[in-house]
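Before relying on records like the one below, remember that each one covers exactly one chain. Contacts with other chains, cofactors or solvent are not represented anywhere in the record.
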Amino acid sequence: MRMMIRRASGLILVAAAGLSPGSAQAGFYSGEALLESCTADRNAKDFFEKSYECVGYVAGAVDAFNTTREVNGLKSCIPADVTLNQLKGATVDYLRANPDKRSQSASALVFTATRQAWPCPKAKARSGVKKKRK
């Protein structure tokens, strides 16, 4: 009986620790973890796993951004002929150039990296006189 109480107490403690505000993150994956996957050593036994993890993550993040834009009636700013390798390259370049941001959410950093590499065209300002409302 005592052992069961200890186990239950331990499980409650672990669950409570997982719900504490200190453990919350903006994303599941940090920029540091993404950079590690995207720059895995070719001779490492987990190279292919890390490479696929990187490309899959970047592709999924970009698809999510594009879906959000589409739902809001906007087109993707990334040209249709951009390859997954180019998306990965832009992300890695950004992460290497911004080590101070690597603790942030990887998806937010992929978004920033791709927006920097392929900025959206500026909306054209409307010309003419504004109409007065009655």
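Confidence is low (pLDDT under 50) at residues 2-25.
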